[in-house]
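Quick one:
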Amino acid sequence: MQTVPFCLIQPYEGVMKLHMPHDWSMTPREAIALQNQLACLVIADLPLMLDSVRLVAGVDVSVKPDPATGQDISRAAVAVLNFPGLEVLEVARAAMPTPFPYIPGLLSFREGPVLVQAFEKLQHTPDVFLFDGMGRAHPRRIGIASHMGLWLDRPTVGCGKTHLLGTNAPVGSEAGSYSPLMDRDEIIGAVLRTRAHVKPVYISAGHRIDLESALALTMRCTTRYRLPEPIRAAHHAAGEHFLD
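Output:
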C-alpha cells in the first residue's frame, strides 16, 4: 500500500488550537491510504462527563454551485451553544471552492479544508463537537467526526442523517430508543430515535468519546426536532448565503 507522507504544521495558536497532521491535497487513493494510517490514532472509548460540558458545537457544510460561475462552493458553519441551555453564543463561518469530488467514505477531504478555516475563527473553545456526518461508523473507522477530532484533539460525535454502513435490529418507536449498528461482529455506532415516531439518526463516537456518552449527549442536545440543536444551528448557518 502506498504511504502518504505527513505534512507536519505547527498548531494554530488561536483561541481554538488546531492540530494539523497533514496536507489536504491528494488523490482519492492517497486519501484512503491516509485514512488507514489515521484510524489507529482515534480514541473511541473515553467516557464524557456531561456535567462538565459547558459549550457544545454543531458542525455542518453546505455545498452549492456559484450562480455566476457554476463552480461548487463549500460553506462551513460551526455553531457554539451553551450547555445545557442550548442557546447560540457564536457562529463561525468560512467559504471556499470545493476542493474534492463527492466520493462516499471520503467526505472529510471534501469538507475538511473549509472546516479548518471556520474552526480558526472561533472565539470560544467548545468542550465537544457534534458533526453532521459519521464518526467510527465508516468503512475505515474514520468518518469526518473522527478525522476532524484528530485535528481538534477534542471529543467529537458523528450524527448522520442517512445510512452509510452496517446493520441493525429494529429501533423502538419511543424517543431515546436505539439499536446497535453492527459491521460484522463489531459495534460501530447506534441507530437512535431522538423523537417518538420520527425517523432515527446514526450516532457514532468520533474521537475522545465513547458511544454511550455520544448517545447521551445527542439526546441532551435534542429538543423538538429530529436533529440535535447544535447541528440544526450549524445547518441553518451553513445554508445561508454569506460572503467570507
